[in-house]
Write a structure and sequence with these properties.
Helix Hairpins; 5-stranded antiparallel beta sheet; 5-stranded mixed beta sheet; 10 helices
């Protein structure tokens, strides 16, 4: 960025526009004002201009998604021909910082969540070696439980790795285009075994020719996780509705809306703000027995963030819950 003495953006190259968003008008990228108002950068600009020497700053931009930016500020004396007094060189460090956090989070989460199934496996192995060594019926029962616990650990590790990959790319908006209607129908069909196990019914309400600028695989994962969550935690023999079609954001922007509604017990209001946290469970015992890893809604949230969309959760105790995703475009 090239700034005037009044800290007005005079010029921005293509890389700056890609990092901060295309200019709504004039030369300044969309998020340039937020960047220049940041206390760390404002302080570094003051220091560089006062001393006539370069300065640096680390800036965290929280919207539209969190980005870690390193700024190197170079005062120009004499000024440039267009009046430019400061050059600000920006380096996007989001991916490197995300990798660092991912490593730390993966170790912490994996060690905590794997402890229970591992302890269970160790206990059953000791029993099979001892009291159940000559009891074929007990052996079969214990081996079945061990298989379930092993499968839970596999799914947990898969979800942790998947969430880490999504978080690493969250600051990069997807470049492709997804046929949301086709993806929704495919995911609805894939839920047949789980629906049969819960004796539940899925009612699709999918508008034809519904598409959006999106990563098709990640849209599929959002729908899959929301359906899986509704079926597992909804009412047995209940009804699940999957709706997909044109929709508007709370601010009026047009796009695509995906909604999954169950007729289960509902969620107490105080729990709703925390549902997308890693491993957060309203009823810890019931959630584990239902087979979830506790990461499905966290994955949904980060995918929606990457697509610059919104996630709304509406629930009424005794009536059911609706998860509503809006994606821009259409």
């Amino acid at each position: 960025l090239v700034l005037s003495a009044a800290r007005i953006t005079l010029r921005a190259n293509r890389a700056a526009r890609e990092l901060l968003g295309p200019p709504p008008s004039g030369p300044a990228p969309a998020d340039a004002a937020a960047l220049l108002r940041h206390p760390a950068l404002a302080e570094a600009l003051d220091k560089a201009l006062a001393a006539g020497a370069p300065a640096t700053a680390d800036v965290l931009l929280p919207v539209p998604v969190a980005r870690d930016v390193a700024a190197h500020i170079i005062p120009m004396d004499p000024p440039l021909a267009d009046g430019g007094r400061v050059i600000v060189l920006l380096s996007d460090r989001t991916r490197e910082r995300a990798i660092e956090r991912m490593r730390a989070d993966f170790v912490a989460n994996a060690s905590h969540e794997l402890r229970t199934p591992l302890a269970s496996l160790i206990g059953f192995i000791e029993t099979l070696r001892g009291p159940a060594a000559d009891d074929p019926a007990a052996q079969q029962r214990f081996l079945g439980i061990m298989a379930e616990q092993s499968d839970r650990m596999r799914r947990l590790i898969d979800d942790l790795l998947g969430l880490s990959r999504i978080e690493m790319a969250e600051h990069q908006a997807p470049a492709g285009r997804a046929d949301v209607a086709a993806v929704a129908r495919a995911e609805a069909d894939a839920m047949a075994p789980l629906l049969a196990a819960r004796k539940a019914k899925l009612v699709p309400e999918i508008a034809e020719a519904t598409a959006a600028p999106a990563d098709a695989d990640q849209v599929a994962q959002v729908i899959r996780n929301l359906l899986d969550n509704a079926i597992r935690h909804g009412r047995e023999r209940g009804q699940i509705r999957l709706a997909a079609g044109p929709g508007t954001a709370p601010d009026g922007r047009r796009g695509v809306t995906i909604a999954v509604t169950d007729d289960g017990p509902g969620i107490p209001r105080e729990h709703i703000p925390r549902l997308t946290e890693r491993f957060y469970r309203v009823d810890k015992g019931r959630a584990r027995s239902a087979g979830g890893t506790g990461l499905g809604l966290a994955i949904v949230k980060h995918i929606v963030n990457r697509h610059r969309g919104t996630l709304a959760i509406e629930s009424e105790e005794g009536t059911g819950t609706t998860f509503r995703v809006w994606l821009p475009g259409g």
